[in-house]
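Local shape tokens

___
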Amino acid sequence: MAVSSRRGDKGEAPTRRAVVSALRFPLALYATVAVGLFVVVRYSVDHLPFAATPAHGFPDHRWFEGWTKWDTGWYYSIANDGYTYSGPGSQSPVAFFPAYPFVTRVANRVFPGDALHAGVVVSLLAGVVAVVVFHRWATAAFGARVGRWATALLVLYPFSFYLFGAVYSDALFLCAVLSAFVLLEKDHPVLAGLVGAVATAARPVGLALTFALVIRTIELRGLFGAYGRPRRLFAPSGEPASPASSAPSWRPKLRDLGVLLSVGGLAAYCALLAYRFGEPFAFAKVASAPGWNRTVDLPTILKDDFFAYFENPALTAIQGGLALQAFVTLASLALLPVIVRRLGWGYAAYVAVVVGVPAASSSHFIGMGRYVLVAFPCFAVVADLVAGRKTRRIVLPVVVTAASAVGLAFMTSFFARWYFLS
């Protein structure tokens, strides 16, 4: 028995070291960038001019103040007072899904204080988990080198400040989406569906995850035949899958229906709205309210409002932010054929819906920086293109990452000073 115990101890030590080694890079990177962004926020709030926009009157905490702008006010009111609904066509809290304000309210009970501070903490915790899970997923998909560069691109993306404390739902949404995909890759469809329900309860576009999980499940079962990419990224043990262990099973299983549980988050919210206001789809009926203007018509599709911003030839922060969001939106959609070839139809379907749907309803690309942030396969594919086996030179990925980091510093500063960019 003693010999067996010693062997077990020896066998566990490398595993623990491997876990620590796998966590070291994403945690160190996240912590470094987080410190830098908090310094940027503090300096911006203290020393740089604000946009001519009234503040919400949030607590005057200089390290936190820059993270509580724009839609934060809605999440704050929901976390404190719950939902109200003033009818179709007018702005109302029902437009904001409940997962994030609910978690913020729970966090505020655990850590008494202001709900805004709790929201910053929730965003930070969800952000760090999302980065760690993404690093593991990208490493399994493309190898250690590309996994590190992909993580750097995600963390230093110009709109990744939503993962570092901004009181918005994006960090929690991305954390849930990544976890659901990883669980499915490990052949746990029921757990993937349950975690996915958090995503559909966090954002209206969360159904993109359900759609993608269904397609990925079909793909992993080999039902797409020669047109699919059935390689599973993880073995059920949690380790990256080898080519032999990742072959498709060629037959569906009853438990595969578990991915449909991901609809539960949206269904629960609709049930709440029906019970409280008699309007199960109240969140959709307020999307076209003045100031939000989320509609799908020809002027919106043609982006008339976007081009109107550029009638003035003088370059402004708003113009720069809109141009950047237009670029990342079009670039992410242009990557869809590459995502299909390198990751499969399920991941491409997710990107197409999570980016394409909000892009179709935005007349000026405002907000698209956040939506591209959660299109995580794009970052892995770009990293593979600039730093993969066929591109071993270090210059290109360094230049791309450095340029992205500069953009992140600027976008974080603008957000902290009430510029409406995303």
Notes: Residues 1-14 have pLDDT under 50 and may be disordered. Residues 39 and 325 are 24 Å apart (CA to CA). The radius of gyration is 22 Å.
